[in-house]
## 1
Amino acid sequence: MSRPMLARLPGRLLARLLVLALTLLAASFLVFGAIRLLPGDPARLLAGPQARAAAVAALHHQLGLDRPFLRQYGDFLLGAVHGRLGTSTVSHQPVGRELAAHAPYTIALGLLAYLLASTGGVLFGCLAAINQARLFDRLFGACTNLLVSVADFWFGLMAMELFAVRLGWLPLMGTGSPAHIVLPAITLALMPAGLIGRMTRAGMIDVLRQDYIRTATAKGLAPLAIYGRHALRNALVPIVTIVGLNLGSVIGGAVVTETLFAWPGLGALLVEAVKYRDYPVIQGVALVAVTAVVVMNLLAELAIALLDPRLRQA
Amino acid sequence: MQTEGPRSMDPANQSASLTAAILAPMYEGLVRRAAGNSVAPLLATSWQASADGLDWRFTLRPGLRFHDQSPCDAAAVVAGFRRLLAPGSPLAAAGRFDVIAMVEPDGAQAVRFRLARPYADFLLLLATPQAWVVSPAAAAAGTLDRRACGTGPFQLAAWESGRSVLERRNRAYWGAAPAMDEIVFTWSSEPSVLYMALRSGETDVATPLSPVFADLARSDPALRLVRQDGDNIFWVALDVRLPPLGDLRVRQALNLATDRRALVSGLMSGFAHPLDSPLPASTPFHAGFPNALRYDPAAARALLAAAGFARGFDLDLAAQQSDEPLAEALQAMWREVGVRTRIHRLESGLYAAAAFAPPSAKLADHVGGVIASWASGSVADLELSPLFSSASAAPAGANLGFFSDPALDRLLEQASLGDDEAVRARLYGQAQRRIVQEAPAVLLYAAQDLAGLRRDIEGVGFIPGLGLTVADARAGPGAQSLVRQSMR
């Protein structure tokens, strides 16, 4: 890392953190307002269809939903600053505790899925680029098309039927052992693996046409050195951006995968919360998601700076 | 495994049958539901009612204790009911017990109720989950929503939200000890996952099984299908204030244009019964009118023509996502008689808002029909009053089409008072006839309760008005291990 970059780092980080705080503030207002614009009264959903109107009205009051919007938002902000995000209206637990209980599952699932997707995608993408227009490349194209276009819901169901029900190799759903994460992680990894694979292939083909690769080949460098040091490093820049952006959104909730496999992460929590209009939990998950996206963007930017010296000066 | 998790651990603060199923092993009421319309002793060993039916005295079983070891005595029972009766109570079941004018202890072991009016179904009301007895200490501490505390054979060990509920045997239980040491409840909203969990042995019991999978479970040698003619009815509430649905002939025509048998065989794989009355045939006091609710598209067309709609009309129909196939089937049937149906497919929160909207909002949205379902606990009054009486017009109750008929209101009121079974049967018969004739709804079918079981589990069955009960589960002769102590 060059000296000017190091000198400017604290200032840039400070600016980034300020942007993070402002983003969070704006996002909290948007989320807070948007979920209150949704039709559907939390009190009615909580009390159930058989509850009488008086009980629904009393619950409405107890939840503080009859107060002016700005007052509700002010109280929420004040609480959030002090680390209090309210209490879930369904599980009756503090939202902070709910987030803390569910976040590790999503983080573990997201990281494992993206580790699988990046390794697989980059490896096969490179091989496809090197073998451009040969059989391997054509198979690769067909597979990635499938991965990108078929719903993960379908993949998940098929994997469950095959590996859990018919073969009995892996647990069907839920948690309890390391084996439980395998099916959901693979399901979640498939789509990004296809995407990363295709981007790697395109990037590599682009780079392999460059003059400096021809120079490297001409001066007799080993193929591994050409592909690894010269080509892949340049092709990786857009891939890291994509992984960074997507990983942030996974932390916000791998909604479909988690719901399907009863994986108790933030995505499953969010689905339940939206179903019952559990405002405090929706707000909590949304704030975590926004934070994750902003932080991951920041990390991706730093990683790209490490890969591409030109960007360190910018 | 079920299709949804618990919404609360407080039986009085929920009205979902799948929540009640999770709470059932942990709580008990004064009385419990027995066959037909009768009740049996549970926490109360005996009871007497005054001649006018207004005063009731229940004698409690001695020596009862809650899971927190506090005594379950008269004061505790009274405190539980007073929570529900307190003005402005935010409990979901508040208002359901407003027939009770007063409740007080009579010594340490007896409880007295005074009713505001005679109410023939009072004992059945006390057998509903919302009337289960809770620890007053836990209620006062405000922890009941999160931590169950009753007198039942099982007690809460852990509720991990979004994952599972673990219940362990209550070693201090007053009655016969259950065979299982542990019950684990899990849930998935995806019907196919529920069935896969059953087949892979991940769960021993899966409910409610959707009809397609119930059909498959029936032919799987490793599984057993348990079913009961349930109280879960489906109907289309018609907004009687919205033209042209204000015209009786139009409403009758929609009923005649509906092929209930086709719905039952096509959508429900036969696991339902076509309705011939607003009450399902399994509910006491049911009276059927199959001729009025027959499938007769020619008669439907004639009625529409007489009403001036020979060329049909446009109808907007609101349905939850899960009822979309039903909505589409109705759309196709009604098209045959010229009715052009537009389906509003709504997410559950949007649906609840649309279904319970007041008349002005329904008029503005032009929603004429709402597909709805209801489980009454197999008590006639708990279905007919909330669905069809004037006082229950939305948003106050579930009379979603604002039907108002003073004659019906009087019949329902009178039928709920008396305790002469023959008189009540006659009054409820007249009430059902009136509803069928006035057609405030297109009555569809009563779905069966369905559960899939692993072959080696026994003692699991349905109780009318409560749903599946698992507290008495035991390992059957085909069990893989001799003593199974845990089920999920």
## 2
Amino acid sequence: MIRLAGIERTFIVGEEAVHALRGVNLEIAQGDYLSIMGPSGSGKSTLLNVIGLLDRPNAGTYKLDGRDVTGLDDDELARVRREKIGFVFQFFHLVPRLTAAQNVELPMVLAGIDPSARKPRLAQLLAEYGLEDRARHRPDQLSGGQCQRVAIARAMAMNPSVVLADEPTGNLDRHTGQEVMAVLERVHHNGGTVLLVTHDPEIGSRAHRRLRMIDGAVVADERS
Amino acid sequence: MRGADLLNFAWQVVRGSPGRTFLILLAMGIGVAAVVAVTSLGEGARLYVVNQFGSLGTNLVIVLPGRSETAGAMPGVLVGKTPRDLVLEDALALKRSHAVRRIAPLIVGAGDVRVGALRRETPVVGTTADFIEVRRMEMAQGRFLPEGDPRQSQPVCVIGTKVASELFGTRQALGEWLRIGDRRFRIVGVLARQGESLGFNTDEIVIVPLAAAQALFNTESLFRVLVEAKSREQIAYAREDVEEIIRLRHEGERDVTVITQDAVLATFDRILRALTLAVGGIAAISLAVAGILIMNVMLIAVTQRRREIGLLKALGATGRQILLAFLTEAVLLALGGAALGVAVGQLARNVALQLYPAIPFQAPWWALIAAPATAVITAMLFTIVPARRAARLDPVQALSRR
């Protein structure tokens, strides 16, 4: 489903070239639950951004659902992102002036889906992620765990091929973090593909497939 | 993204930061209000002048002694050098034209008017019976000067309402006698109140037969001749005929100035329209200032909303959608400001109307369209730079910062 071959990503910092990704080859199958761990600066987030089509590799090919998305232009990338990728961020990134329901609805609004079609899907999402009684609250009236639940529901709004979570528990206490992980794992149980970036070994070890990155290269790929 | 959703999204932003919204509405509102108010004043002045000319009478052609090369000046200002006087015979000859319905020769002078011990200096106008028809004036009491040979003088006069009230108070003026210089005139009529028209207040004048004025002021030369054309279409022919008749009578010299009401009116109309346009344009500068304010506010918004823009991109918004979202926001703000401005401008117009009821202040239709349109276009133009900056934002960088 996701196939990366020879992915290179180089940043120019000052006059030095920093190799964030060096020749990454990776295949992720539908329904995988996978974590990427590694020290900071090891390229985990860059890999996530490349997979999420927010960043373009300098070299290599990326096939998503059988389609080569390496050379697409910005608008086409936006469209693929909208339909196939769901993001969950460390800092939730909810739009502060919109209610929880409006935040969940946002991807469908951007995709231009008719309100009559959005409504039942929104109700379903709110119910699925236990947000019905929080639907009309704004992010500043929600707890961290609730915010992340809203973010996960938003990521799932378009039924993406893969959910990319960048340190989803990094901004939460241990207990809430466990709760949010349970929610993410429910996505996986329902057949979704989940890719998790974390530096917390306890969180990372929950995944069925664990990648380890050092200096922009994948050095370990364990399955259990 | 659907249009309604785009609008709703922009509306959320506008509603979400009331302080910012208020500031922009204020700036845009002031700009639009200034344009509406200033053009209302200009248009009011124009309509005032147009109405004043209209009240002179219809289909009017004015003949002045002397030739002026200046086109379209005010009749009162024209004091041409007169090689040959314009006399009553010239005026009567004008009746030969088929395009002319009536004529009214005028002699104007200042007279020392007395009733008993009361005396007053007023303008005295010598004219003929047709004057009242040519000028479209009404009588309040009695009748106008009698018909008859304009060369014959009868000792009668017609007075304005103000003259009547000043000389007679509440007493009946009709049938009384008054003296002008060493001559006596019986009052046969009082003019209806008409007010000022072009600096000439008919409420303050005394009208006597032409021949009497000739004797009073000891002159044969006419101040001017008012000619009424048979219809609006005939004005041009009447003008040609008048020039030709006078030229023939004055041994081939074109020594009179002929002004048609239309020409004067058109000139004033042009001047005042241009003036209104100019002051409207000056007021529109404030719209440009408001536009710059919008640009600054939007630039700040792009910086403040970096994370949100990054998020929208991550959720699949195209650069175009983000550009449109910012433009929609700007248009909403501009429309709100324009509505506010038009309302305030009309309010200012109503206040001006209360203060000066004689001048028909009103915003010209083009200003009511142009001011809001300029506001919207300015807002859009000035938002393009910030909106493009937002659309080009790199989502990875936008999201990475807290």
